[in-house]
Amino acid sequence: ATPTSVMVGTGRAAELGVLFRKGDALQALSGVATVAFDKTGTLTEGRPAVTEIATAPGIDRAQALRLAAAVEARSEHPIARAILEAAPDHPTAEDVQALPGFGLRGRVDGAAILVGAARLMDEERIDLGDLAQAGERLAATGATPVYVARDGRALALIGLADPVKPTAKPAIDALHAMGVRTALITGDTHATAQAVAAELGIDRVHAGVLPGGKVAALEDLRADGPLAFVGDGLNDAPALAAADIGIAIGTGTDVAIEAADVVLMAGDPRGVADALHISRRTLRNIR
Ligand code: ADP
Ligand code: MG
């Protein structure tokens, strides 16, 4: 009756929009000790919006935003879309280079422009002045601070907020009720990640993770037992493949779906608890 109960469980899951892509995923999921979530697009809506702009003394806000938008026009990052929405009228940038996990560099009217995280400005030895404190205050609310610099001088801080999905807290609560630990993995700064984790009650946080570093963060979490990773695709494919169970969420990219064992059709993280519940029930029937 093993294959039959697996078929029944898989069918029941499909009715809830949870697709088990690989045969043994239903069994493997039942033994998971920790579920690690990507932040952006998985627990948050994945559509950040500019909510705040602070400038260095004497700098015009609109001008700083246009310089940032010029460079971001060449990026596919969700941050880029938000900044472009805030400054649709912008000059053209040249020599734009993406610095994954850090931000962007480019040239506008001959000036060297940097747009990105505090660690990018650190690396370029740019003094953020009072903008540093403003950025830390912003991060403590769960927003993402992005800095703009021109020719080695900090011009502005752009604050972007990406609201958590209304289903995120119930998803985390449901997993805890089932005795599973939760973790958050993100490229955002520690302060931003910590604020989101606290809001959702997530147990552990790996922040400041570079795009290539998610797999190493998973190895660390795996010390506690079998691990599931939930991601929406952008850069998540290696982590989805490396976890004991990879769960792709929502409108996930094709790459993510290919790498995943389980796909949650609706972008609803509560599907993880549904999947776990069905897998445990199925295994009880098998034994
Ligand atoms: P995540 O996958 O968690 O969203 P990323 O590695 O994409 O993290 O980005 C990490 C950080 O790098 C962002 O929070 C932001 O500070 C900075 N960053 C990355 N891309 C850009 C960009 N196009 N513009 C500005 N900042 C960026
Ligand atoms: Mg994501």
From TrEMBL:
GO terms for molecular function: ATP binding; ATP hydrolysis activity; copper ion binding; P-type divalent copper transporter activity. GO terms for cellular component: plasma membrane. It is found in: Cell membrane. One of its GO terms (biological process) is copper ion homeostasis. It comes from the Bacteria. Its main location: membrane. Keywords: ATP-binding, Cell membrane, Membrane, Metal-binding, Nucleotide-binding, Translocase, Transmembrane, Transmembrane helix. Belongs to the cation transport ATPase (P-type) (TC 3.A.3) family. Type IB subfamily. This is Cu+-exporting ATPase. It comes from Rhodovulum marinum.
